[in-house]
Design a protein that fits this description.
- The protein has 114 residues and is α/β, with parallel strands linked by helices.
- 29% of the residues lie in helices and 10% in strands.
- The protein contains 4 helices and 4 strands, in the order αβαβαβαβ.
- It has a 4-stranded parallel beta sheet, with no helix packed on it.
- The longest helix has 10 residues.
Amino acid sequence: MIDEPAMLPVYKAIAGKLPLLIHMGDPKRDSSSPVRLAHVLDKFPDLVIIAAHFGGYMMWEDSRKYLVGRNIFMDTSSSLAYLDPETAVKMIRSPAQTSSCLVRITPCGGKGMN
């Protein structure tokens, strides 16, 4: 889990020095939920995070609730084909969103292109 105590020394060591891409969200597991990332960001505000899949694959409402407005980057891969366009636009254009969204387009199967 991304907020387990064993990970805290890693976050401390790289905070403000090295960006970290985290594979976010899975409705079948709670290991990388938006809530867990919010806990990490509360402890390490200088951590440079790239949160994959708009901050939580298939957990976009939680991503909006806990991550939009935080100082993170959001990757849009494997999200836009599954996320309704209105929600995607709201997340990107949120007045509270302080960091850019990263767009990564790569064909990798599944529903449409990313």
